[in-house]
Specification:
The protein is mainly β. It contains 3 helices and 26 strands. The longest helix is centred in the last third of the chain and has 12 residues.
Length: 497
């Protein structure tokens, strides 16, 4: 179909960079219990104190940047904990409700030693002192009583909340489920180099995409982006079609025919109302214009036609409408219909994000976007319910929304040689991945010398339940358990249960 209303999706980068450098006169240094200001000299215990009111032991100090610091009971050599100094050389140990505390603590790091009495240690119930002993220098024989430091500075957690199995509970209708898999992620900065773990959110000032979504991770003055992609399961067991790569990004034409499946998309009337009528013996069907020539006259666009969004007059985006549920007037004229006014290019998802790297046409990159305080919200319309808000992703989540994912890599060439894709080629899960990059330079962010990459599982399959659930008794010809007694024994646990 063609329509007189059009929206041009152009990337508008709003860059607001504010730098504030405050310089003043440093206060004088004072000696404290014979511990001078030796921050540049390596190891130093600044504080060792037991707080009776909070029943908490606190020990802190300095060491060389990122150096390991081991704490011991100075009298018994019992090990207390091993910590890692942060990028500024600062370290801190806290323990609530300790079972024992030292009267004095000794710290060892990089061949240096420092010792300090624990203030108010005499207030600890039962008296101070940790039983143990050993050789010192490593706390020989002692057992650490404090918390273990996190292994990584960043944890990138990813999943998709929907499961593999969908069903209809009656057969009076037929459900055709479109490929729709989202990435939902959270980026956690652990307490390895900070006092507390932090859930990192979006930056509202830079990297705003045409729909007004935040794409840049804000971590103080540091800014990052998370680039995502998908990998098919490797067929390393020798079964199935030969595999040249695992990347899933250009599904259309390789393992999917959504945009190439023609469908007469909705044609609203002059007042932007959906038009209902008869089609192939059914009534109350959304009507198109009878033409299949429009860029949106395909299944990939048509299945969105009952969804719509609005422009928020208070905060219009570069593209106009938003995915935050704002500006909903309920007026037909104000509804921006998905798949009608918003046309989805090949290999893009519900939020116009690409399936993976290399997809062009929508002006969006394969970077996760921040859902903010509202979540991702669209509105739905039917013959009985109007202006129904549908939250597609919860608030404060990084996402790539409703991607047209299949279980097959781009190089499988399904439509070139369908016979090569046998049952052994079908694997029920896809690996979703995202990597952290510096926003300004584009360089990979390293943690312990390794790139920060999150991994999650996307359940995506075609109807072939028997491959995983059949018993391997030969009745189901396509069962992967046939001739494999070990796997068949595992499958038998299901009916036994």
């Amino acid at each position: 179909m063609s329509t007189t209303t059009s929206w041009t999706w152009t990337s508008t980068l709003v860059a607001v960079v504010t730098a504030a450098l405050c310089m003043g006169t440093a206060p004088p240094a004072f000696a404290d219990d014979n511990h001078g200001d030796n921050h540049n000299l390596g190891l130093h215990i600044d504080k060792a104190e037991y707080k009776d009111g909070k029943d908490k032991l606190e020990i802190s100090g300095e060491a060389f940047n990122n150096a390991a610091v081991s704490l011991f009971d100075a009298a018994s050599n019992a090990a207390i904990a091993t910590l890692t100094a942060d990028d500024h050389g600062e370290w801190k140990y806290k323990e609530k409700h300790p079972t024992a505390i030292p009267c004095a603590v000794r710290a060892e790091s990089a061949g240096q030693t420092d010792q300090r009495d624990v203030r108010h240690a005499d207030e600890f119930a039962g008296g101070c002192g940790i039983a143990g002993g050993g050789g010192g220098g490593g706390g020989g024989g002692g057992t650490p009583t404090g918390p273990t430091q996190p292994k990584h500075t960043f944890n990138l957690l990813m999943n998709y909340e929907l499961g593999m199995h969908c069903t209809g509970f009656e057969f009076s209708y037929c459900c055709v489920l479109p490929p729709y898999n989202s990435i939902v992620a959270q980026l956690v900065k652990t307490e390895k180099n900070d006092k507390f773990p932090t859930l990192l959110g979006g930056d509202p000032n830079v990297g705003i995409d045409p729909l007004g979504r935040e794409t840049v991770v804000r971590d103080g003055f540091n800014k990052y982006v998370m680039r995502y992609w998908h990998d098919a399961q490797p067929r390393n067991d020798g079964r199935g079609a030969p595999q040249q790569s695992t990347l899933i990004s250009m599904a259309e034409g390789n393992s999917l025919l959504m945009w190439n499946t023609k469908f007469d998309a909705a044609a609203p009337d002059a007042g932007n109302n959906l038009v209902y009528g008869a089609y192939n013996g059914s009534t109350g069907v959304i009507q198109g214009d009878g033409s299949y020539a429009g860029a949106n006259d395909n299944y990939a666009n048509a299945w969105y036609n009952h969804f719509f969004i609005y422009v928020d007059p208070a905060t219009p985006t570069a593209a106009g409408p938003n995915l935050e549920g704002k500006g909903n007037t309920g007026l037909e004229a104000d509804k921006i219909r998905l798949g009608v006014h918003v046309v989805y290019p090949e290999n893009t998802g519900a939020g116009l994000q690409p399936l993976g790297p290399g997809v062009v046409g929508a002006g969006f990159e394969n970077v996760l976007t921040w859902t903010g305080e509202t979540g991702t919200v669209v509105y739905s319309q039917s013959k009985t319910v109007e202006d129904l808000p549908v939250m597609l992703t919860s608030p404060r989540i990084w996402e790539a929304l409703g991607l047209p994912l299949t279980p097959f890599e781009d190089t499988i060439n399904f439509f070139g040689d369908p016979g090569a894709v046998d049952e052994g080629s079908i694997r029920p899960y896809v690996r979703m991945r995202a990597q952290l990059f510096d926003y300004a330079t584009g360089n990979a962010v390293l943690d312990n010398g390794q790139p920060v990459i999150g991994t999650g599982t996307a359940p995506i399959d075609i109807p072939n339940c028997e491959r995983c659930h059949a018993l391997g008794d030969g009745v189901s010809a396509n069962s992967a358990q046939n001739g494999r007694p070990a796997l068949a024994a595992l499958a038998q646990h299901e009916p036994d249960f």
